[in-house]
Each structure stands twice: as structure tokens, then as C-alpha cells.
Amino acid sequence: MCGRIGFDLRPGQLAARFPGFRIPEDLPPRYNVAPTMPILALDPAVKTAAYYRWGLDGNSSTGHFNIREETAADNPRYRRLPPVIIPVSHFYEWSGRQPMKIARADGEPLLIAGLRGHWEGLPAVTMITTEARGAIVPFHHRMPVLLEEAELIAAPVSQLLNDVRNEGPELLNEPAELQLRLLG
Fold it and tell me: Which of 75, 68, 65, 77 is nearest to 125 (CA)?
């Protein structure tokens, strides 16, 4: 599953990867983005990047923030939705209460497959998920559909990430308790 992401990409990084796309110049870093919050998505049909609410109309307060790829392929409601590309620096999974940052080993952005729809009439997106593989398997049985093959790495980060109200680069710090074990 993918219920939390981080975004620390520069406009130049995205412009180099997506020439011809209109990309906002102000892309503030975000380290603890959860469903219902705005996330950046690229619409290949109009070559534009914009912020969308994360989570489509659904039965819960967060909406459908993830859609299984088999559901997206089989359900007429989702087959009609236009595809988007959701660029992120990383996403998080948990091992118990310990958050793990999942990122590309080469440091490049992760490009996640998504769909564009609505939440109560407002533009919104959802991420498509698939069976977990590689570094994700120990943490969850699902993972985002990545549009590029890449080696993924998992690293423990601060437990401050467990509270969605926390924000900032310190969330990526190695947990203090792990640092103490390494020193002791």
C-alpha cells in the first residue's frame, strides 16, 4: 500500500525528465504527505504538472487514495479515468511502529502510475498499486506501480513521521535509538 510519501524534487529535475511539460517553479519540499493532502501529478495528455487532492471519491473520509491495478483494469469506473504520473522522492512503509523510507538506490525520483478523477467535485488523483516485490516485501504485500524499473532501498527514519502533523527534513533522520545501538 502507499499511504505516505515524501517530495523533495527540484523543478529542474522534473523538467529534465519531462521536457515540454509545464512544471510549477515553486515546488516546496514535503516530507510527510498523507491522503487528502495536495500532491503533484503530471498529466501526459496536456503536458502539465499541477497539485491535486490525494484520494478520489469513495466511501471513506480519505477516499480511494490507492487503487489495485487489477481493479483499475477491470472496473469501468476506473478504466475511464485519465492516467497521471505522480513523481515522489520516496514513500514510506512501516515495520511495526518503525517507518521505513523507500527510495530508488540511484536517488532519482520514483514515478508512480496514477489516475485522475474527482473528490466532491474537486480535481483529485489516486495511486495504482501492485503486488510487492524486492525491498517492499518485508513491510507490505502491495506497493505503488512504478513506471520505471529501479532498485529500491529501505532505510529506517525518525518515528516523528508517525504523526502526520510533523513536517520537515528531520523526519528523514536515522532513528535515535538505532544510532545509540550502533555507538554502544
Answer: 65
Q: Which three cell numbers stand for residue 158?
A: 525518525
How many CA atoms within 13 Å lie on the side-chain side of 85?
20
Q: How far is CA 99 from CA 2, 66, 168, in A?
A: 12, 19, 15
What Cα–Cα distance (Å) separates residue 22 from each residue in 52, 70, 160?
15, 31, 34
**Where do the domains of the chain lie?**
5-156
Output the pLDDT for position 177: 61
157: pLDDT strictly greater than 60: yes
* Contact between residue 8 and residue 22 where contact means Cβ atoms under 8 Å apart: no
The candidate with the shortest Cα–Cα distance to 81, out of 110, 43, 54, is: 43
Grid cell, residue 114, equals 496514477
Tens-digit pLDDT profile for residues 63-98: 789 899 999 899 888 999 999 999 999 999 998 889
Q: CATH says 5-156 is which class?
A: alpha beta
Q: Three-state DSSP class for 11?
A: helix
The C-alpha atoms of residue 86 and residue 126 are separated, in whole angstroms, by: 9
Q: Residue 92: is it exposed, middle or buried by C-beta count within 10 angstroms (0-12/13-18/19+)?
A: buried
